[in-house]
Amino acid sequence: MAIHYALVARGSLVLAEFSASSTTASAITRQILEKISGNTNNTNLSYSQDRYTFHIKRTDGLTVLCMADATAERRIPFAFLEEIHQRFVRSYGRSVFSAQAYAMNDEFSRVLSQQMDYYSNNPNADRINRIKGEMSQVRDVMIQNIDKVLDRGDRLELLVGKTATLQSNTIRFRKQSRRYRNAAWWSNIKLTVALLFLLLLVVYVILGFICHGLTPRSCLK
Fold first, then answer.
1. Backbone angles phi, psi at 71, to 5 degrees
2. Which tens digit of pLDDT belongs to each residue from 12-28?
3. Are 119 and 76 in contact (CB under 8 A)?
């Protein structure tokens, strides 16, 4: 799709225009302007001419017109016309209603050229395609966010698993410590009893040696 020609006019008086190629568009648009100049209503129109279509937007006394390939869908040329109308009014205000022919051409023809190139070649100029692209970006962001959530969920499950393992190891360690303390306590009891028995045995032997006998009567003599 390409927009080849564009103009801004008040009635049949052209205030600015630009042609991207050598065509008869200028002569044809003059006939169209003469034809619609008596209609003061805000309106959108399209006229077919051979391989091209002339799209017209009339708003508040201003006419913005472009010539585009006949194969182009209407939404892109009319999006271009809306953009041009807004830029023109924003730039010149109410002076457009008293300006002479081509009064804004030197300056605004460059704007026409730039916007014609943008709406002809940049896919973002198509609002529907742009919205689809934005929706695709939102979907990609959502998928990335879901992936991150799932990844955090996996990490959380891993952390929970590690925590459960740590708790299990802690309980096992406590049981082993309790068994070790019990075993150590019994070992101490056994050692104490053995030492007392040995001590009693030593005392008994010493007394027997002193008393020249191993019976109590020996010590009483």
1. -80, -10
2. 899 999 998 777 888 89
3. yes
- Give the Å distances, CA to CA, from 70 to 10, 66, 73, 135, 147: 25, 12, 8, 29, 46
| Structure confidence at residue 197 (pLDDT) | 85
Handedness of CA 6, 9, 13, 15 (dihedral sign): negative
Position of tokens 């002076």? 95
Two tokens, residue 190: 């056994």
Strands 13-19 and 62-69: unpaired
Structure tokens at 42: 């805000």
Residue 99, CA distances (Å) to 12, 15, 38 in order: 13, 8, 19
Cα 54 from Cα 48, distance rounded (Å): 6
Q: At 9, list the tokens.
A: 């006019």
pLDDT digits (tens, 9 = 90+) for 158-190: 666 666 777 777 777 677 777 777 777 887 888
d(CA 50, CA 71): 11
Give the 3-state DSSP-derived string for 20-82, with helices as H, strands as E and coil as C.
Answer: CCCCCHHHHHHHHHHHHCCCCCCEEEEEEECCEEEEEEEECCEEEEEEEECCCCCHHHHHHHH
Report the alpha-carbon distance of residue 75 to residue 17 in Å, rounded.
Answer: 21
104 touches 16 (CB < 8 A): yes
